[in-house]
Recover the amino acids of this structure.
């Protein structure tokens, strides 16, 4: 489909671009939300891991003690191998939009001027606000550690979300147990105590405006209820500092996970499930460039959970593109299953387009959250959402305006609900 | 691809629309084939399950004692959340075609007039014949219970098909054993007797014009031959009313399945395999809205079957879109494997288009059955086939007329074989 | 997308067609690289297996003692059922290009004239060279048995590649052990001796210009290191002629595979992994038409291998289309994982297009080998590459020229790297 400047798809996209957004999932640090220099931007794992994959040694990229500027200079050396990637397109588009960068490539010849120019812009005291406005971002969901004090920032703009990976998968680590004890004042060596402590975390988060709970899950995870009796042994072993067997770890993870789901139900908090990641598959990879997946996973593993917690909304992201059809079908049947964005390795137009198309064809429109940025720095919100908007505009135009003779207004209204409306209704706040 | 009223794709589609069809798989009740009112139409599980998924309580939808009209009024309340779905497009298109409905949405404001108007139309004594004619349906395959007497209807128009799910998977249920005993006059507590009884069912069906045998199968089913000795214990246990172990159930299912395949071979009946459904995954779902699937399934599980029965044609439907490539490849290699339609959760254009494209590129044209309606009421034949025809016309135009410089006539001829011709040659009748 | 004669996609494709190629994977016999008659061409397994699948008995196709001409006459009888397939499009296109065939179908009426005419052309002494030139093929990789003497041909034009399937999976066969003994002069009944022998094979291949090692792997294979102690029992059992248990076979396969990877590392030879084939699934199939696959496979099974051999480049082909997303993701993260072509059942445009699109969007451009022919006879190089070039031109045009406003020159340059440049840099030769 040719989409020239004046194409109807572009026009539709321009209308979608007007919509003020709430980004329902990011890794923004609310105390340093915007970038300070190009180092923060080129340091995004997408660029370091791709440069590494294309041949640059990790030692070059992650050399200790190099300045941000040196690091940028090094990564730019690797960009020539990556100029085809959609990730470099994000980079060029954000440099154009926010720094007035006019070239179509970032090269060893032009990067330094951009570095210096952009650093000046980013040092403006209102840079963070400028980015939010230029990106039409009204609010951004965070992903907070369970022991985050959640103070010192505006929780209406940066909305807390309780990340529970550490609780579910890492209670065996002494530092996690110590952080939990410090955050709650509890020794949690029995199931009852652990439940009580987790309840405290929920109270803390909810009282600070949290609107979601979230977790990323490996492909072989299968949630089931676990009795206190069954959980007690593994939990005590963990607190005694013993090495757990695979079986014990699994029992403990399932127990904590199910407990968290119960508190989500009690507090009416949606529970974001990000399904399918295997951590540290490539241990010699760069920082945050070590995780991959195994596509042999099914939402069928979650059937007991979906049945047991009808009042908990589960916005679900799947890492494997092959999982999208299950997500469409489970969201089509289960009232509490919601399709949520396009995660990580599936976050490229080649996968977003078929996924978006099928979701719009078969999921009730009020259960489809189009996109989240997953960003670490605010500057990436605009180009990532823009990538999605282009795909969405194409699908709305081809399938609805042309395929079903919808008016453009009606199509844009559907886009608005997917991009913004559902974020509000689904994450409407705890009670 | 823009397909305006006068587009070449539309023109090609219009030619496909002229083809008189034999629908090779449906759930039509031949004694009440057409709808009596909008309740029969809005009661289709696609609308109730989607309305339920979008937030309407099951108790509202399935309240005991409500009239058909009340039920329609309630479901219409939920349609606003579903107007994006392809299923609602079926609804609007059939209301337009059969009832002269002019609006583009069915709403709380306009449904009642449509209800009353359409009820009058449907009360005409020739309504069933009108629908068949307007839908260009010459004949429709049924899905009959094994104890169906197959009398009281025209088996040339409504073609019997022996559904074998109960025999293969539910012999442990007393009512199934009783129905079998009643249908055959047999106590079937030994393998030999059971085989004899199943043989009687085949004789009954074939003598009443049955042209296929069919079954839906869970993702973990793997057919293998089972000896009488191995089957005897589980079968006797079932007939003694004992609870079978998982292992025993599996052995018994495999034994019955293999026996049925043998009778298909003897009677030259195609055996429709509908692969991949898990039943009652969501037990609180509405009627017929409880089943889902696990994409981790492979046609490799069926290799022994395909090898053992070279004379049995196996028209295969797969529930998971991810299984389509295996279906294409197995149909490309095995003479007795035939690609059959687009089933249930994979029956939306987003999945049909890539599936259709690959099947046309790599399966011999005489082994590709384009589509079946799977309908419960005749009114759905036209909009469902129409959805498929649009996709087929697009693929034929783009890949064959443009991509291979075929004439439009040649492309339509291929479409005719896929839509109609292969149904006749593949289900040519028992002998 | 309409691609008429003068479309911009066609123009882009024409430029790609100018690129002189090195085909990085084929099954060419360098002593008989070109066909002698249409029997060599119609005898390609794609035509025999599809004709067989469409209904022609194997006994007809593979009747002993029939002449090449008789065989062609028989297969042509089956082509009417296959004229929709992309494989028959290869046939028609090569007959047009190389033999001046003007019809759009090969039929019982016109095949004999083509047979006779083409046989004359193919008898020209420079036919092989003619085909290479018309196909713009500069060099072609072979797939050589481990005991191939590699003499009597120009290894610059026909580049040796060590095929290791027999060593890894068939050491239990006496003939394989005998061939190994003959090739190396070694009895290999101990791990140390076997390693030494394999080392000899590598030395032999490298000294004859081999530029790659290759293997095809079943879906359930998972490479791990195996100690000499653990390998010794299974190896001795194999050499004693005992039947190995499944477990023993697996240990032995893993030991040999890991050993080969170690020699690849030592010799800086890329190791082509062709992942996912199950052999002899359909034992009654025609020659080379018996293999299929099980889509339940993951590159996660190869994580230890990728981590253990950072210096070995692994150009990877996946048989299941569903595996493409993992290949994209693993190539995006692991520096030594390279996406390689479109293999066998996934080698049709319906799968190539989405696969190509995602690879261009997310894999560094220097790690993406667009295509290889996999051909047995030189005549198939052109139509198979042409099929790929059309898809590549479409993706380059739509996603890069239109979608990213790249100049046509820049898009063609990316195409050149994918089609040719990366073959040179990745298979740059042992050292």
């Amino acid at each position: 489909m040719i989409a020239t400047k004046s194409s109807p798809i572009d026009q539709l996209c321009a209308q979608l671009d007007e919509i003020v957004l709430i980004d329902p999932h990011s890794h923004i640090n609310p105390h340093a939300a915007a970038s300070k220099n190009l180092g923060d931007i080129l340091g995004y794992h997408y660029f370091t891991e791709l440069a590494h994959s294309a041949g640059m040694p990790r030692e070059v990229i992650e050399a200790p003690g190099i300045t941000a500027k040196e690091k940028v200079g090094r990564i730019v050396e690797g960009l020539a191998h990556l100029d085809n990637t959609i990730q470099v397109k994000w980079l060029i588009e954000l440099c154009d939009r926010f720094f007035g960068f006019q070239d179509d490539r970032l090269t060893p010849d032009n990067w330094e001027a951009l570095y210096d120019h952009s650093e000046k812009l980013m040092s403006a005291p209102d840079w963070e606000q400028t980015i939010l406005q230029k990106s039409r971002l009204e609010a951004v969901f965070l992903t907070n550690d369970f022991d985050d004090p959640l103070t010192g920032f505006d929780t209406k703009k940066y909305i807390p979300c309780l990340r529970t990976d550490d609780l579910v998968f890492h209670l065996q680590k002494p530092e996690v147990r110590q952080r939990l004890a410090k955050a709650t004042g509890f020794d949690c060596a029995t199931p009852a105590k652990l439940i009580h402590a987790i309840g405290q975390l929920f109270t803390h988060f909810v009282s600070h405006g949290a609107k979601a709970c979230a977790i990323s899950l490996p492909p072989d995870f299968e949630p089931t209820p676990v009795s206190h009796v069954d959980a007690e042994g593994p939990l005590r072993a963990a607190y005694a500092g013993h090495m757990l067997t695979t079986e014990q770890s699994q029992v403990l993870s399932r127990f904590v996970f199910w407990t968290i789901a119960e508190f989500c139900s009690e507090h009416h908090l949606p529970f974001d499930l990000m399904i399918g990641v295997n951590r540290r598959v490539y241990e010699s990879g760069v920082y945050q460039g070590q995780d991959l997946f195994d596509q042999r996973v099914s939402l069928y593993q979650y059937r007991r959970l979906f049945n047991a917690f009808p009042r908990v909304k589960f916005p679900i992201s799947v890492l494997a593109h092959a999982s999208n059809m299950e997500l469409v079908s489970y969201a089509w049947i289960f009232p509490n299953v919601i399709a949520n964005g396009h995660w990580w390795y599936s976050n490229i137009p080649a996968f977003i387009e078929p996924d978006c198309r099928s979701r719009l064809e078969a999921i009730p429109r009020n259960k489809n959250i189009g996109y989240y940025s997953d960003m670490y720095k605010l500057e990436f919100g605009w180009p990532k959402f823009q990538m999605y908007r282009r795909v969405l505009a194409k699908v709305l135009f081809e399938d609805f305006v042309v395929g079903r003779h919808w008016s453009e207004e009606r199509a844009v209204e559907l886009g608005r609900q997917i991009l913004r409306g559902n974020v509000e209704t689904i994450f409407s706040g705890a009670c």
Q: What stands out?
A: The radius of gyration of chain C is 22 Å. DSSP finds 18 helices and eleven strands in chain C. The longest strand of chain C covers residues 212-217. Chain C touches chain B through 42 residues (CB under 8 Å).
